[in-house]
Amino acid sequence: MKKIKNLKKKNGFSLIELLLVLGIIAALAITAFMIYPKVSASNNAQTEATNINTIKASVTSLYSSSPDYTGLDTEVGIKSKIFPDTMVNTAGTAAVNTFKGKVTLGTSNESPSNATDSSFTITYEDVPSAECVKLVSAVASNFYKITVGGATVKAASTGTGAASGLNVTQLSTSCATGDTEIVFTSL
């Protein structure tokens, strides 16, 4: 009869197993760091698109029985609860966006009639380039005119008063310059 040796069971990991586990963890961590900023930018842009649509609807509702938007400014917007509560600073004196830039309201004469205070603007400051294109694209159909960093990316057409389409090439170029100011003009 042959003697059977008792083999002891090893406890722990071999060096190869340990390196394999560390490699998998490193790959997952790198993937998370690459994906997180894109997901975060998309979420921020969607949140602000919702906020912009809420502000627009609130202003339109507030001034529904007025012939124009005379007197509309950020202070009126804050006092009238036009801005979502999450946008108003703790002192209740200013509105800020997710990117910590100012948000202001004002009147404009950029409507087809060019009458004083016949339209209003929502101005977003310090919008990062990662969110800029997504934000403007999400709300463009709701506005008459949009400028990004001073460049018009959606222009009002002359004559009929209908708004023209969004110039995606100009939008991409304007947003790529860094933290920008976006002015949304509504009727």
Q: Please tally the β strands and state the result.
A: 7
Proportion of residues in helical segments? 25-40%
How many helices? The count is 4
Question: How large, in whole angstroms, is the Cα Rg?
Answer: 26 Å
User: What string, H for helix and E for strand, traces the elements in order?
Assistant: HHEEEHEEEHE
Query: How far is the N terminus from the C terminus?
Result: 100 Å
Shape estimate: elongated
Beta-strand residue fraction? 15-25%
Strand order of the largest sheet: 1-2-3-7-4-5-6
The largest pleated sheet is described as: 7 strands, antiparallel
Q: Are there runs of 5+ residues with pLDDT below 50, and where?
A: none
Secondary-structure class: alpha+beta
Mean pLDDT: 86
Keywords:
alpha+beta, 4 helices, 21% strand, seven-stranded antiparallel beta sheet, single chain, 187 residues
Compact overview of the structure:
With 187 residues, this protein is of the alpha+beta class. 39% of the residues lie in helices and 21% in strands. The protein has helices at residues 15-62, 74-79, 129-139, 168-175; strands spanning 95-96, 102-108, 119-127, 145-148, 151-156, 163-166, 180-186.
